[in-house]
Amino acid sequence: MSAPNIKQGYLAAAGAIAIWTGFNIASRLAGKSALAGTDILALRLGTAALVLLACGGLPRGALRDARLWLLTLLGGLGVSIFAYCAFKFAPAAHGGLLLPGMQPFLVALAAWPLLGEKPQAHKLPGYALIALGLLLSALPMLSGHDVGQVWIGDLMLLAASVSWAVFGVLARRWGFAAWPLTRAITIMAALLYLPVYLLWLPRHLAEASWGMLAFQALYQGVGAAILAMLLYLRAIAALGTVKMGVLFALIPMLAGLLAAPLLGEPLTVSLAAGLASVSLGAWLASRERRKAAAPTPAACEA
Hints:
The chain has 302 residues and is mainly α. It has one domain. Helices cover 73% and strands 0% of the residues. The chain has helices at residues 3-31, 37-53, 66-86, 92-98, 103-115, 124-137, 139-142, 150-174, 178-199, 210-239, 241-248, 251-263, 269-286. Helix 1 (3-31) packs antiparallel against helix 10, helix 2 crosses helix 3 (66-86) and helix 10 packs across helix 11. It starts with a helix and ends in a 16-residue tail after the last helix. The relative contact order is 0.21.
């Protein structure tokens, strides 16, 4: 791999990390507005589906594939609706903890029954640090402090994280390529959700400013749903999945640090310690054990 390609890979990784870190901030900003989680999901799916219809549309045969409908329910609807509704109650830092921070542990847990892959022993310290981080961040709740309805948001974030993990494991099991899969689950989710939203769900779009609506539509529908995926695929091609997993461990800490100045959310000692522990745990759990390279005969070297 040439140096320019490696550099481009790190730039793409930085872009994807920035967008997915900002997802927590933008979603919490929407949660503190008049918009409901159902409104944000409609903006995301409506915008993304229009863009993707112009960029290839549905892959051939997608509507007849039951596996894609299941992945749509998990990755196209489950993750987003739980996450957007959660940010009505939970702070952005909790999104960093429970969404990307929990993924190494939850993916390993889902891969055991679905793929037959047992958790690897060298990753156990990482999982333990993730658990410790969650315990530290929950100290105010466990010690009896009044945290209001934050726990409701945390449960929704956990549900979103479980949906994301199962979605990723099943997508890997069934061997779907990322870009056609992104187009399929986004457009199919729009086909399922938008009629329900328009006909039966309460709508609060008129109560929000045009600026907020445009920002959420572009950030969630173009940035988080499409651009971040393209950057992620570019980074994976240049750096590999292991390095990307390690870099993504930065997201919980970055989300917590940015939420304090941008949203005015308190960064307590226990929360900061929890963010650091989860980020370190995610980093350790994303690493692969290095195998000792066998000596290569000189005649075979290239």
